Amino acid sequence: MAGNFWQSSHCQQWIVDRQDLIRERQNDLQFMSEEEHQKILIFFCNFMQTLGEQLKLRQQVIATASVYFKRFYARNSLKCIDPLLLAPTAIFLASKVEEFGVISNSRLVTTCHQVVKSKFNYAYAQDFPYRTNHILECEFYLLENMDCCLIVYQPYRPLVHFVQDMGYEEQLLPTAWRMVNDSLRTDVCLLYPPYQIALACLMMACVVMQKDTKSWFADIGVDMEKIQEICRYILSFYDLTKNYDEKKEAQALLAKMPKPKTQPSREENKH
Amino acid sequence: MMDYEFKVKTAAERVKVEDWFDYEGCKVGRGTYGHVYKARRKDGVPNPTNGRNDNRDYALKQIEGTGLSMSACREIALLRELKNPNVICLQKVFLSHNDRKVWLLFDYAEHDLWHIIKYHRAAKASKKSVMVPKGMVKSLLHQILQGIHYLHDNWVLHRDLKPANILVMGEGPERGRVKIADMGFARLFNSPLKPLADLDPVVVTFWYRAPELLLGARHYTKAIDIWAIGCIFAELLTSEPIFHCRQEDIKTSNPYHHDQLDRIFNVMGFPLEKEWEDIRKMPEHPTLLKDFKRTNYANCSLIKYMDRHKIKPESKAFLLLQKLLLMDPTKRITSEQALMDPYFNEDPVPTSDVFAGCPIPYPKREFLTDDDQVKEEKTENKMQQRPPQPQQNVQNQQQNQVHQQQQGQNQGNNGPTDPKRIRMGHPHQGQNQSGMDQNNSGHQSGHGHQGQNQGGGHTHGGSGGGYMNSGHQGHQGQGHQNHGQAGGHMHPSGNSMMQQHYHQQNQNHQNQNQNQGFGQRF
Ligand SMILES: Nc1ncnc2c1ncn2[C@@H]1O[C@H](COP(=O)(O)OP(=O)(O)OP(=O)(O)O)[C@@H](O)[C@H]1O
Ligand SMILES: [Mg+2]
């Protein structure tokens, strides 16, 4: 569907309003600060990245899974489904949509076990607690919650296009590409069209590479205010991670998350 | 872990398919990937989009198996995005959490090309006529191309184009509109993450498979869809699957299929190196050289094949067909180019209602009982086009090939001399008497002008009553075209398929209007 972002479900249903996003988050923000909330989402993006790499998935699949994950928690509290379950589910669903070929259920669960044990033991003392049937059940909820919008447009393709247009330069693409990867750890994929995210990352990469591209940006006639907003999101992510050691903080952060209740709750202890 | 309250809340919001729709006992289709039901909204359940009660028909597809298979996923993902008048529209997805079934809701299409072609073949076999507007084939092709152009423009490949997957809307606001369906195999192809051939070893039904696929091409392309459209076009023009081939061992993951290639060469001739330079680079090229001898196909060509079916080589229909069926995929026409072909500017121009306002001669879909299903499952090869029943075709096909070669050798004479040939009436020659009789003998009663059309002998010649007078002049009687075609697939009557070729001797009497569609082909 590369040709048609403007008619896509991504554009029409899943570019959300910033105010709506903040409002939906209020529930979770009773239990934690905005920064902590952001760190929790970053943690699970890292988890999906590691899991995806372990499964030898392409970045495109991981990026799509990250967007699914964000879409779900844009409309639901962290309490609704344990993100540790939703994360592999998003990877599973994205791998089917992005045509990687089906990952077998057992391989997915086994890899989750390995990854939790070897790479995220700083956050989880116990084993990965879910089995195949949990993931399959969760998949229906994820699909339903996204209103079956599965095709996600990513900034990678427009990025490549823009870099070529600019006149290809060795280090520019990889630098900007990494920034696109980092952008997945912010809200921008819910707030802006992918081509704008690509341009923002390209602009930051040009700054890093000390390349003067003002005239190029002026020529393509894009809303520079939007591009700058995106840059601010990504830069604040870099700020946040500067003095942040996930290994040290993860457990405490995860403990703050509101947890799902499996049984009908007798006492309301929300407040 | 999932939150209990969350589950309760979502369950309350969730619509169950059986709460909204009546569909029990209304199964109309059974494909490889699911059961299709004709469904109606239950009383008092309004259409959510406009709040009004609606008593339209819908098609509910229950996807085979449970959960979200990769093909179900792809089908949902793509259909969710696609919006074009000639592509089937996904109205809603129902996820049934209890039994883990996935249901897709579509608009109901009363007809499809498989049933339409089957109907014409049956009519031909029993020497009955079917009344359709002369531009119908052209309108069908035009809309198929528009749908595919939209898909290709959006970087979606269909990959499983065949008559059964081309739906046509019945009575209603979208009357006579083509809907391309069955996107289960469709996939984005702008950046295939894996060579596509690795994922589903066998996809396109062999009859509609492009030669490059049969020679082991590793990637699907737009050109592969175009080839299939060429096959469908030829089938619409002649009512015979152009590359009909005995079907067996279709489960093989080996793309190379000797018999299917043989059939293609029997129709098209063996490709010359200069016609298809890259054929040498095909993975199965060595096998091709080993298995095939060019000289066996020296007398075969698309011109001759279509000529035998009374499609003149200089007709616009033939010229377009030839561009769709080019062996070299890089030379094959694109959907965009095809849409601009002069064929579509020539009278009769395509209509958005392929039936051009005329009565629709085809029966409505029948409901399948469980018995039908069992039968169907037994006789049907999985993954296959439904038409011919294999046992009959083994023989037919062999005869066919022999016959084609004989015919080829006879080219240039004023028709074949095979003693077995039966002289059959050409549509536009005086033999229409029998056709008229048949017309009048019931099948198409109520269309009194039919005989006149036939008598007129060509598409513009008719002047009878009915809709001819109301501007739809293209109605052709067709009973006269029943040159003994057995329709071997549909009728186990033992008549040989070769008879389809016998009317060649009449070709020199054909008039220039003959290629304009079903009107003359059936
Ligand atoms: N929208 C519709 N309206 C009416 N009938 C339909 C509709 N969609 C499908 N059908 C009928 O059901 C049959 C099977 O549907 P479909 O082709 O979508 O399923 P499939 O399992 O993918 O089939 P295939 O064997 O071609 O892969 C069709 O050939 C057609 O006869
Ligand atoms: Mg089908």
From TrEMBL, chain A:
Q: Which family does it belong to?
A: Belongs to the cyclin family. Cyclin C subfamily.
Q: Work out whether the entry's keyword set contains Magnesium.
A: no
Q: Give the protein name, as stated in the record.
A: Cyclin-like domain-containing protein
Record-linked Gene3D superfamilies: Cyclin-like
Is Aminoacyl-tRNA synthetase included in the keywords of this UniProt record? no
Which Pfam families does the UniProt entry name for this protein?
Answer: Cyclin_C_2, Cyclin_N
Q: Which domain of life is it from?
A: Eukaryota
Task: Identify the residues that the record assigns to the Cyclin-like domain, covering every copy.
Answer: 46-144, 157-236
Q: Which organism is it from?
A: Orchesella dallaii
UniProtKB/TrEMBL annotation, chain B:
Bias kind Gly residues: ranges:
453-468
Keyword Kinase recorded: yes
Q: Which residues form the Protein kinase domain?
A: 22-344
Sorted alphabetically, the keyword list is: ATP-binding, Kinase, Nucleotide-binding, Serine/threonine-protein kinase, Transferase
Positions of ATP binding = K61
Q: Which family does it belong to?
A: Belongs to the protein kinase superfamily. CMGC Ser/Thr protein kinase family. CDC2/CDKX subfamily.
Quote the protein name from its UniProt record: Protein kinase domain-containing protein
Q: Which organism is it from?
A: Orchesella dallaii
